[in-house]
Design brief:
This protein is mainly α. Helix content is 48%, strand content 11%. It has 4 helices and 2 strands. It has helices spanning 3-6, 13-23, 37-45, 56-65, and strands at 31-34, 49-52. Strands 1-2 form a two-stranded parallel ribbon. The longest helix has 11 residues, at 13-23. The N and C termini lie far apart (27 Å).
Length: 71
């Protein structure tokens, strides 16, 4: 998703909505991962699961907690 095409950048809700439409998923079906807390929190406000990336191990743990099979 390119902000220059959407006309908005994170944490503007428009870019998250455009990404959801492009992926053809509902907010509750999506997981957003970023190392910038404000961006992950903006995604959470729209109903996405937001993960703040801190390490590969932490990410794997958080994804598993959301039911993502990493096998």
């Amino acid at each position: 998703m390119y902000s220059c095409i959407v006309g908005a950048s994170k944490p503007n809700p428009l870019i998250y909505r455009e990404a959801l439409m492009a992926c053809k998923v509902k907010a509750g079906e999506a997981i957003y991962i970023d190392d910038v807390p404000a961006y992950a929190e903006a995604a959470q406000r729209l109903g996405l699961s937001g993960i703040i990336f801190q390490s590969p191990e932490q990410l794997a743990t958080d994804l598993k907690a959301l039911g993502v099979d990493l096998a």
